[in-house]
Amino acid sequence: MSRTPAEEDTRQHWKDGIRVMLPLFPGVIPFGMIAGVVASDTGLDMLAGIGQSVIVYAGMSQIAATQLIGEAAPFFVIVMTGLIINLRLAMYSAALAEHVSALPLAKRWLVAYLMTDQSYALSALRYAARPEMTLAEKYAFYTGGAVLMWSVWLAATAAGYLLGNRIPPSWSLDFIVPLSFLALIVPAIRDRANATAALVGGSIAVLGWNLPFNLGLFLAALAGVLAGYTVETRALRKEEQK
Amino acid sequence: MSSEAILLAVIAIGIGTFVLRVSFIELAGRMPLPPRLSRALRFLPAAVLSAIILPAVLKLPDGTLDFTPTNPKIIAALVATLIAWRTKSSIFTIFGGMALFWLLNWLA
Protein backbone atom coordinates (compact mmCIF):
# COMPACT_ATOMS: atom_id res chain seq x y z
CA MET A 1 0.00 0.00 0.00
CA SER A 2 1.48 3.35 -0.94
CA ARG A 3 1.07 6.45 1.15
CA THR A 4 0.73 10.02 -0.01
CA PRO A 5 3.55 12.41 0.98
CA ALA A 6 1.19 14.14 3.45
CA GLU A 7 0.40 10.82 5.15
CA GLU A 8 4.10 9.96 5.23
CA ASP A 9 4.73 13.30 6.95
CA THR A 10 1.99 12.79 9.52
CA ARG A 11 3.42 9.36 10.27
CA GLN A 12 6.78 10.95 10.98
CA HIS A 13 5.20 13.31 13.52
CA TRP A 14 3.43 10.39 15.17
CA LYS A 15 6.78 8.59 15.50
CA ASP A 16 8.39 11.78 16.84
CA GLY A 17 5.69 11.98 19.50
CA ILE A 18 6.56 8.45 20.62
CA ARG A 19 10.31 9.08 20.47
CA VAL A 20 10.26 12.12 22.78
CA MET A 21 7.93 10.36 25.24
CA LEU A 22 10.15 7.27 25.65
CA PRO A 23 12.78 8.78 27.99
CA LEU A 24 10.01 9.75 30.45
CA PHE A 25 8.86 6.17 31.07
CA PRO A 26 11.55 5.16 33.59
CA GLY A 27 9.97 7.80 35.86
CA VAL A 28 6.34 7.05 34.98
CA ILE A 29 6.48 3.27 35.51
CA PRO A 30 7.49 3.31 39.22
CA PHE A 31 4.94 6.07 39.85
CA GLY A 32 2.18 3.99 38.21
CA MET A 33 3.22 0.93 40.19
CA ILE A 34 2.99 2.94 43.42
CA ALA A 35 -0.55 4.02 42.46
CA GLY A 36 -1.42 0.32 42.03
CA VAL A 37 0.24 -0.75 45.27
CA VAL A 38 -1.51 1.98 47.29
CA ALA A 39 -4.85 0.93 45.77
CA SER A 40 -4.39 -2.75 46.65
CA ASP A 41 -3.02 -1.95 50.16
CA THR A 42 -6.05 0.26 50.81
CA GLY A 43 -8.34 -2.62 49.90
CA LEU A 44 -9.82 -1.21 46.71
CA ASP A 45 -11.25 -4.01 44.56
CA MET A 46 -9.79 -4.57 41.12
CA LEU A 47 -12.47 -2.59 39.30
CA ALA A 48 -11.82 0.60 41.30
CA GLY A 49 -8.12 -0.06 41.95
CA ILE A 50 -6.99 -0.64 38.37
CA GLY A 51 -10.05 0.96 36.76
CA GLN A 52 -9.19 4.38 38.16
CA SER A 53 -6.23 4.47 35.77
CA VAL A 54 -8.81 4.38 32.94
CA ILE A 55 -11.58 6.40 34.61
CA VAL A 56 -9.47 9.16 36.18
CA TYR A 57 -6.06 8.69 34.51
CA ALA A 58 -4.21 11.27 36.65
CA GLY A 59 -1.54 9.86 38.95
CA MET A 60 -1.27 12.36 41.78
CA SER A 61 -5.04 12.60 42.13
CA GLN A 62 -5.46 8.79 42.05
CA ILE A 63 -2.96 8.33 44.88
CA ALA A 64 -4.40 11.17 46.99
CA ALA A 65 -7.99 9.92 46.57
CA THR A 66 -6.97 6.36 47.45
CA GLN A 67 -5.23 7.56 50.62
CA LEU A 68 -8.34 9.48 51.67
CA ILE A 69 -10.50 6.42 51.00
CA GLY A 70 -8.14 4.50 53.32
CA GLU A 71 -8.61 7.16 55.99
CA ALA A 72 -12.41 6.85 55.59
CA ALA A 73 -12.70 10.55 54.66
CA PRO A 74 -16.17 11.84 53.69
CA PHE A 75 -17.21 11.21 50.06
CA PHE A 76 -17.28 14.93 49.26
CA VAL A 77 -13.74 15.49 50.59
CA ILE A 78 -12.38 12.58 48.52
CA VAL A 79 -13.93 13.86 45.30
CA MET A 80 -13.01 17.53 45.88
CA THR A 81 -9.41 16.65 46.71
CA GLY A 82 -9.12 14.49 43.61
CA LEU A 83 -10.42 17.37 41.50
CA ILE A 84 -8.51 20.27 43.07
CA ILE A 85 -5.22 18.42 42.43
CA ASN A 86 -6.25 18.29 38.76
CA LEU A 87 -7.10 22.00 38.41
CA ARG A 88 -3.90 22.55 36.43
CA LEU A 89 -5.41 20.40 33.65
CA ALA A 90 -7.83 23.26 32.91
CA MET A 91 -4.80 25.48 32.30
CA TYR A 92 -3.36 22.86 29.93
CA SER A 93 -6.75 22.74 28.21
CA ALA A 94 -6.63 26.50 27.65
CA ALA A 95 -3.07 26.30 26.35
CA LEU A 96 -3.78 23.43 23.94
CA ALA A 97 -7.12 24.86 22.78
CA GLU A 98 -5.77 26.97 19.92
CA HIS A 99 -3.94 23.92 18.53
CA VAL A 100 -6.73 21.36 18.69
CA SER A 101 -10.12 23.09 18.78
CA ALA A 102 -10.46 22.77 14.97
CA LEU A 103 -10.39 18.94 15.23
CA PRO A 104 -13.64 16.97 15.02
CA LEU A 105 -15.39 16.23 18.33
CA ALA A 106 -14.14 12.66 18.84
CA LYS A 107 -10.53 13.69 18.30
CA ARG A 108 -10.87 16.75 20.55
CA TRP A 109 -12.23 14.58 23.33
CA LEU A 110 -9.46 12.02 22.84
CA VAL A 111 -6.88 14.81 23.17
CA ALA A 112 -8.62 15.96 26.35
CA TYR A 113 -8.90 12.47 27.84
CA LEU A 114 -5.20 11.72 27.21
CA MET A 115 -4.02 15.01 28.74
CA THR A 116 -1.22 14.63 31.30
CA ASP A 117 1.67 16.77 32.52
CA GLN A 118 3.87 14.92 30.07
CA SER A 119 1.64 14.93 26.98
CA TYR A 120 0.84 18.62 27.53
CA ALA A 121 4.43 19.74 28.13
CA LEU A 122 5.94 17.82 25.22
CA SER A 123 3.32 19.11 22.78
CA ALA A 124 3.27 22.71 23.99
CA LEU A 125 7.05 22.91 23.63
CA ARG A 126 7.00 21.24 20.20
CA TYR A 127 4.17 23.45 18.85
CA ALA A 128 5.99 26.58 20.07
CA ALA A 129 9.25 25.49 18.44
CA ARG A 130 7.57 24.55 15.11
CA PRO A 131 4.77 27.00 14.32
CA GLU A 132 4.54 25.58 10.76
CA MET A 133 2.99 22.29 11.97
CA THR A 134 -0.45 21.51 10.49
CA LEU A 135 -3.49 20.44 12.48
CA ALA A 136 -3.04 16.81 11.40
CA GLU A 137 0.64 16.87 12.32
CA LYS A 138 -0.06 18.36 15.74
CA TYR A 139 -2.69 15.70 16.41
CA ALA A 140 -0.34 12.93 15.23
CA PHE A 141 2.50 14.17 17.43
CA TYR A 142 0.24 14.46 20.47
CA THR A 143 -1.51 11.10 20.16
CA GLY A 144 1.70 9.22 19.27
CA GLY A 145 3.17 9.93 22.68
CA ALA A 146 -0.07 10.18 24.65
CA VAL A 147 -1.61 6.83 23.62
CA LEU A 148 1.61 5.04 24.51
CA MET A 149 1.72 6.92 27.82
CA TRP A 150 -1.83 5.79 28.60
CA SER A 151 -0.99 2.12 27.88
CA VAL A 152 2.19 2.23 29.97
CA TRP A 153 0.37 3.90 32.86
CA LEU A 154 -2.40 1.30 32.83
CA ALA A 155 0.09 -1.59 32.63
CA ALA A 156 2.18 -0.09 35.47
CA THR A 157 -0.81 0.39 37.81
CA ALA A 158 -2.10 -3.11 37.02
CA ALA A 159 1.35 -4.57 37.72
CA GLY A 160 1.58 -2.64 40.99
CA TYR A 161 -1.90 -3.76 42.03
CA LEU A 162 -1.43 -7.44 41.14
CA LEU A 163 2.26 -8.01 41.92
CA GLY A 164 3.11 -5.29 44.45
CA ASN A 165 6.02 -2.96 43.91
CA ARG A 166 8.98 -5.08 42.78
CA ILE A 167 11.28 -2.10 42.31
CA PRO A 168 13.54 -1.74 45.39
CA PRO A 169 13.00 1.68 47.04
CA SER A 170 16.79 2.12 47.29
CA TRP A 171 16.89 2.64 43.51
CA SER A 172 14.97 5.90 44.05
CA LEU A 173 13.54 5.76 40.55
CA ASP A 174 11.00 8.42 41.55
CA PHE A 175 13.85 10.92 41.18
CA ILE A 176 13.65 10.33 37.41
CA VAL A 177 10.39 12.33 37.29
CA PRO A 178 11.97 15.71 38.20
CA LEU A 179 15.03 14.87 36.08
CA SER A 180 12.90 14.15 33.02
CA PHE A 181 11.00 17.42 33.49
CA LEU A 182 14.33 19.25 33.82
CA ALA A 183 15.39 17.71 30.52
CA LEU A 184 12.22 19.11 28.92
CA ILE A 185 12.15 22.59 30.32
CA VAL A 186 15.77 23.74 30.67
CA PRO A 187 16.47 23.89 26.90
CA ALA A 188 13.14 25.72 26.40
CA ILE A 189 14.00 28.61 28.73
CA ARG A 190 15.58 31.08 26.33
CA ASP A 191 14.48 34.46 27.66
CA ARG A 192 14.12 36.37 30.89
CA ALA A 193 10.32 36.08 30.95
CA ASN A 194 10.40 32.26 30.87
CA ALA A 195 13.22 32.16 33.41
CA THR A 196 11.12 34.35 35.73
CA ALA A 197 8.09 32.10 35.23
CA ALA A 198 10.20 29.08 36.21
CA LEU A 199 11.77 30.82 39.20
CA VAL A 200 8.46 32.10 40.57
CA GLY A 201 6.62 28.85 39.85
CA GLY A 202 9.30 26.78 41.58
CA SER A 203 9.54 29.08 44.60
CA ILE A 204 5.80 29.28 45.20
CA ALA A 205 5.56 25.50 44.89
CA VAL A 206 8.21 25.09 47.59
CA LEU A 207 6.57 27.70 49.84
CA GLY A 208 3.13 26.16 49.32
CA TRP A 209 4.35 22.60 49.75
CA ASN A 210 2.17 22.00 52.82
CA LEU A 211 -1.04 23.52 51.47
CA PRO A 212 -4.00 21.13 51.48
CA PHE A 213 -5.31 19.47 48.29
CA ASN A 214 -1.93 20.01 46.60
CA LEU A 215 -3.13 23.57 45.96
CA GLY A 216 0.48 24.78 46.09
CA LEU A 217 1.12 23.34 42.63
CA PHE A 218 -1.86 25.12 41.05
CA LEU A 219 -1.08 28.45 42.75
CA ALA A 220 2.58 28.12 41.72
CA ALA A 221 1.63 27.54 38.08
CA LEU A 222 -0.71 30.54 38.18
CA ALA A 223 1.88 32.82 39.85
CA GLY A 224 4.61 31.70 37.45
CA VAL A 225 2.44 32.42 34.40
CA LEU A 226 1.55 35.88 35.75
CA ALA A 227 5.21 36.64 36.51
CA GLY A 228 6.35 35.61 33.03
CA TYR A 229 3.57 37.62 31.42
CA THR A 230 4.41 40.73 33.49
CA VAL A 231 8.11 40.58 32.63
CA GLU A 232 7.32 40.16 28.93
CA THR A 233 4.78 43.01 28.93
CA ARG A 234 7.32 45.34 30.56
CA ALA A 235 9.99 44.38 28.04
CA LEU A 236 7.57 45.03 25.15
CA ARG A 237 6.66 48.44 26.58
CA LYS A 238 10.33 49.40 26.84
CA GLU A 239 10.80 48.38 23.20
CA GLU A 240 7.92 50.65 22.18
CA GLN A 241 9.31 53.64 24.05
CA LYS A 242 12.60 53.39 22.18
CA MET B 1 -16.60 2.64 52.55
CA SER B 2 -18.49 0.07 50.48
CA SER B 3 -16.93 -0.88 47.16
CA GLU B 4 -19.93 0.71 45.40
CA ALA B 5 -19.28 4.05 47.16
CA ILE B 6 -15.57 3.84 46.30
CA LEU B 7 -16.34 3.17 42.65
CA LEU B 8 -18.81 6.05 42.67
CA ALA B 9 -16.11 8.39 44.06
CA VAL B 10 -13.67 7.24 41.37
CA ILE B 11 -16.29 7.84 38.66
CA ALA B 12 -17.12 11.30 40.08
CA ILE B 13 -13.43 12.27 40.05
CA GLY B 14 -13.12 10.81 36.54
CA ILE B 15 -16.02 12.85 35.16
CA GLY B 16 -14.87 16.03 36.92
CA THR B 17 -11.31 15.56 35.67
CA PHE B 18 -12.53 15.05 32.11
CA VAL B 19 -14.55 18.28 32.37
CA LEU B 20 -11.38 20.12 33.48
CA ARG B 21 -9.44 18.60 30.57
CA VAL B 22 -12.02 19.36 27.91
CA SER B 23 -13.13 22.76 29.30
CA PHE B 24 -11.19 25.33 27.31
CA ILE B 25 -10.75 23.10 24.27
CA GLU B 26 -14.54 23.16 23.84
CA LEU B 27 -14.95 26.82 24.87
CA ALA B 28 -12.30 27.99 22.43
CA GLY B 29 -14.16 26.36 19.55
CA ARG B 30 -17.16 28.58 20.31
CA MET B 31 -15.36 31.81 21.14
CA PRO B 32 -11.65 32.54 20.72
CA LEU B 33 -9.57 32.84 23.86
CA PRO B 34 -8.57 36.42 24.72
CA PRO B 35 -5.14 37.12 23.12
CA ARG B 36 -3.77 38.13 26.52
CA LEU B 37 -4.68 34.75 27.95
CA SER B 38 -3.00 32.82 25.16
CA ARG B 39 0.08 35.03 25.46
CA ALA B 40 0.22 34.41 29.22
CA LEU B 41 -0.21 30.67 28.77
CA ARG B 42 3.02 30.46 26.81
CA PHE B 43 4.73 30.68 30.20
CA LEU B 44 2.80 27.72 31.59
CA PRO B 45 5.33 24.97 30.70
CA ALA B 46 8.18 26.79 32.48
CA ALA B 47 6.00 27.68 35.49
CA VAL B 48 4.30 24.31 36.01
CA LEU B 49 7.27 22.04 35.31
CA SER B 50 9.48 24.05 37.64
CA ALA B 51 6.70 23.84 40.26
CA ILE B 52 6.75 20.04 39.94
CA ILE B 53 10.55 19.77 39.83
CA LEU B 54 11.63 21.86 42.84
CA PRO B 55 9.54 20.20 45.59
CA ALA B 56 10.38 16.77 44.12
CA VAL B 57 14.10 17.52 44.33
CA LEU B 58 13.88 18.80 47.91
CA LYS B 59 11.48 16.13 49.14
CA LEU B 60 12.64 13.49 51.64
CA PRO B 61 10.98 10.06 51.94
CA ASP B 62 9.15 11.24 55.10
CA GLY B 63 7.49 14.06 53.15
CA THR B 64 9.50 16.98 54.55
CA LEU B 65 11.74 19.26 52.46
CA ASP B 66 15.53 19.17 52.79
CA PHE B 67 17.45 22.32 51.82
CA THR B 68 20.95 21.22 52.89
CA PRO B 69 23.38 21.78 50.00
CA THR B 70 24.84 18.28 50.47
CA ASN B 71 21.44 16.68 49.71
CA PRO B 72 22.44 14.33 46.83
CA LYS B 73 19.24 15.18 44.95
CA ILE B 74 20.10 18.89 44.93
CA ILE B 75 23.62 18.25 43.62
CA ALA B 76 22.39 15.75 41.00
CA ALA B 77 19.60 18.10 39.88
CA LEU B 78 22.02 21.04 39.49
CA VAL B 79 24.39 18.93 37.39
CA ALA B 80 21.43 17.60 35.36
CA THR B 81 20.34 21.22 34.72
CA LEU B 82 23.81 21.97 33.40
CA ILE B 83 23.74 18.85 31.19
CA ALA B 84 20.28 19.75 29.86
CA TRP B 85 21.41 23.31 29.13
CA ARG B 86 24.60 22.28 27.32
CA THR B 87 23.46 19.12 25.48
CA LYS B 88 19.66 19.63 25.12
CA SER B 89 19.49 15.81 25.33
CA SER B 90 16.82 14.10 27.48
CA ILE B 91 18.77 10.86 27.65
CA PHE B 92 22.03 12.47 28.84
CA THR B 93 20.17 14.64 31.36
CA ILE B 94 18.13 11.82 32.91
CA PHE B 95 20.81 9.16 32.99
CA GLY B 96 23.59 11.60 33.92
CA GLY B 97 21.54 12.97 36.82
CA MET B 98 20.50 9.49 37.97
CA ALA B 99 24.06 8.09 37.74
CA LEU B 100 25.43 10.97 39.80
CA PHE B 101 22.62 10.56 42.35
CA TRP B 102 23.38 6.84 42.76
CA LEU B 103 27.12 7.55 43.00
CA LEU B 104 26.61 10.19 45.72
CA ASN B 105 24.36 7.83 47.68
CA TRP B 106 26.90 5.03 47.34
CA LEU B 107 29.71 7.30 48.56
CA ALA B 108 27.70 8.59 51.51
Order of helices and strands of chain A: HHHHHHHHHHHH
Distance between the termini of chain A: 59 Å
Biggest protein-protein contact in the assembly: A-B, 97 and 69 residues
Quaternary structure state of the chains depicted? heterodimer
Question: How many beta-strand segments of chain A?
Answer: 0
Low-confidence spans of chain B: none
Low-pLDDT segments of chain A: none
Broad structural category of chain B? mainly alpha
- Report the C-alpha radius of gyration of chain B, rounded: 20 Å
Largest sheet of chain A: none
Count up the domains of chain A. 2
Radius of gyration over C-alpha positions of chain A, nearest whole angstrom: 20 Å
Mean pLDDT of chain A: 92
Write down the domain tally of chain B.
Answer: 2
Structural class label of chain A: mainly alpha
Structure notes:
The complex is a heterodimer of chains A (242) and B (108). With 242 residues, chain A is mainly α. Chain A folds into two domains: 5-168, no CATH class; 189-242. In chain A, 76% of the residues lie in helices and 0% in strands. Chain A is globular and about 65 Å long. In chain A, 50% of the residues are buried. With 108 residues, chain B is mainly α. Chain B folds into two domains: 1-32; 43-107, no CATH class. In chain B, helix 4 runs antiparallel to helix 5 (90-107). The longest helix of chain B is centred in the first third of the chain and has 28 residues, at 3-30. Chain B is flat, with a radius of gyration of 20 Å. The model of chain B has no long low-confidence stretch (mean pLDDT 92). Classes of the chains: A mainly alpha (242), B mainly alpha (108).
Primary descriptors:
heterodimer; A: mainly alpha; 2 domains; B: 108 residues; mainly alpha
